[in-house]
């Protein structure tokens, strides 16, 4: 017999409730934390010591979420946002706090997460890999929206807690060469015959020149392509159309690359427009050099790089003369890594494609190594670390985009006889709450 499910109304957020409360601290997502009748309330955009009026948007049994309505008293640390789009755009969420204080909060948050999730860890002093607070981002994806009724075209970022596209004409965290592209690109795209076929637009500051990558769901006419070529020539940028299944059509320019500045010279890494690269080029360069310094590979050392991507760390490690194995789960990234190794004449590095969430000990590359580097996704490297004893490295560098998984995974390392020797916060995303870190574990 067929059964029909009728969703029950969400009574916890049926009617907003406006209240005043005092913010006591920030959580790891940079949300203000207050108390209301003994219940924790999370308030994005609020700072400690501030008295705020908020609207309760979600009222659960153990906590509540609220929207900031008004500042009744203002923290001495609060600053006015640099970006005119800050209150509506969903890209940044920490511009109301000075950059130095942002980093202090991230450093303290990382320490607190270790104390909470891995209390047995003896923490070293936490240092920082710093970034410029502005103009640091070398890659960004903008959303587009075409209104068929008004025939209006909008290019920008998704709104804060919204799917609506907020139109922007500049962005202070983008590389200046990319920010300057937004307004003329939007103007030209809005005049194309195939404007309704446009998807997101990606801006990339490559080693050669700025690049505009336009996602299209239908083939553009020759007339539209000619307009894009004319725009690219006028702006001195590369112009690429992204079709389905990662097929790129270069209207102007060539395959991009970025350069790592290493102790023994520069290293070029080519990539495709849709591939993942670290968006903060300066911090990425410092991070790679620090990883090489911490592992100190010598000629003949066997180094394993898990979650290697297109070789960001692997190739730098191989440039020291060590024997390097890079392992990645995405096939096209593995092929890119191999291409980059050949182009750099690095014959002492091999790349393999393996699902690192599956059993590893049957893989052809698996075996004892001298050094290990991990750069996993936000989920962490819990499954891979189960094989740490068989790999038996003397040193492990763990690069993390999620301090929660780093603190959790460190317990496995501690249980297997490793000690946390160094810990750094990476200032990869100024003006946001996102925390990146890297840690060095040494076998006792």
TrEMBL record:
S-adenosyl-L-methionine binds at residues 278, 307, 312, 328, 355, 375. The keyword Endoplasmic reticulum does not apply. The active site is at 401 (nucleophile), 401. GO terms for biological process: methylation. It is an enzyme of class 2 (transferase). [4Fe-4S] cluster binds at residues 83, 89, 92, 171. InterPro entries: 23S_rRNA_MeTrfase_RlmD, MeTrfase_TrmA_AS, MeTrfase_TrmA_CS, NA-bd_OB-fold, SAM-dependent_MTases_sf, TRAM_dom, U5_MeTrfase_fam. CDD domains: AdoMet_MTases. The keyword Methyltransferase applies. It catalyses: uridine(1939) in 23S rRNA + S-adenosyl-L-methionine = 5-methyluridine(1939) in 23S rRNA + S-adenosyl-L-homocysteine + H(+). GO terms for molecular function: methyltransferase activity. Residues 12-70 form the TRAM domain. Its EC number is 2.1.1.190. Keywords: 4Fe-4S, Iron, Iron-sulfur, Metal-binding, Methyltransferase, rRNA processing, S-adenosyl-L-methionine, Transferase. Catalyzes the formation of 5-methyl-uridine at position 1939 (m5U1939) in 23S rRNA. Belongs to the class I-like SAM-binding methyltransferase superfamily. RNA M5U methyltransferase family. RlmD subfamily. NCBIfam families: PRK13168.1, rumA. This is 23S rRNA (uracil(1939)-C(5))-methyltransferase RlmD. It comes from Shewanella electrica. The lineage of its organism: Bacteria, Pseudomonadati, Pseudomonadota, Gammaproteobacteria, Alteromonadales.
């Amino acid at each position: 017999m067929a059964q029909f499910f009728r969703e029950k109304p969400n009574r916890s957020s049926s009617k907003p409730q406006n209240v005043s409360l005092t913010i006591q601290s920030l959580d790891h997502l940079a949300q203000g934390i207050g108390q209301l009748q003994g219940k924790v309330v999370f308030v994005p955009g609020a700072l400690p010591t501030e008295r705020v009026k908020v609207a309760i948007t979600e009222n659960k049994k153990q906590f509540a979420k609220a929207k900031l309505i008004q500042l009744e008293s203002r923290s001495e640390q609060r600053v006015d946002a640099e970006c005119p789009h800050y209150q509506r755009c969903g890209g940044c969420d920490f511009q109301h706090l000075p950059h130095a204080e942002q980093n202090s909060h991230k450093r303290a948050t990382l320490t607190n997460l270790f104390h909470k999730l891995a209390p047995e860890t003896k923490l070293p002093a936490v240092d920082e890999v710093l970034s410029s607070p502005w103009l640091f981002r070398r890659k960004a994806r903008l959303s587009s929206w075409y209104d068929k009724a008004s025939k209006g075209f909008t290019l920008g970022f998704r709104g804060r807690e919204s799917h609506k596209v907020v139109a922007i004409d500049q962005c202070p965290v983008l590389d200046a060469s990319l920010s300057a592209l937004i307004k003329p690109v939007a103007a030209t795209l809005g005049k194309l015959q195939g404007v309704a076929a446009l998807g997101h637009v990606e801006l990339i500051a490559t080693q050669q020149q700025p690049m505009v990558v336009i996602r299209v769901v239908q083939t553009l006419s020759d007339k539209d392509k000619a307009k894009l070529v004319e725009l690219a020539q006028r702006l001195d940028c590369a112009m690429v159309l992204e079709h389905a299944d990662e097929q790129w059509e270069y209207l102007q320019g060539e395959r991009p690359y970025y350069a790592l500045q290493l102790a023994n010279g520069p290293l070029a890494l080519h990539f495709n427009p849709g591939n993942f690269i670290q968006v903060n080029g300066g911090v990425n360069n410092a991070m790679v050099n620090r990883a090489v310094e911490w592992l100190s590979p010598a000629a003949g050392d066997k180094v394993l790089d898990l979650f290697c991507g297109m070789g960001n760390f692997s190739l730098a490690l191989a440039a020291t003369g060590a024997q390097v194995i890079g392992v990645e789960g995405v096939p096209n990234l593995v092929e890119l890594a191999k291409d980059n190794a050949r182009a750099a004449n690095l014959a002492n590095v091999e790349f393999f494609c393996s699902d690192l969430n599956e059993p590893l000990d049957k893989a052809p590359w698996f075996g004892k190594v001298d050094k290990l580097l991990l750069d996993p996704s936000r989920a962490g490297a819990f499954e891979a670390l189960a094989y740490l004893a068989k790999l038996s490295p003397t040193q492990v560098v763990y690069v993390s985009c999620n301090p929660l998984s780093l603190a959790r995974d460190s317990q496995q390392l501690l249980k297997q006889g490793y000690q946390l020797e160094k810990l750094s916060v990476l200032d990869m995303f100024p003006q946001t709450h996102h925390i990146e870190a890297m840690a060095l574990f040494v076998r006792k």
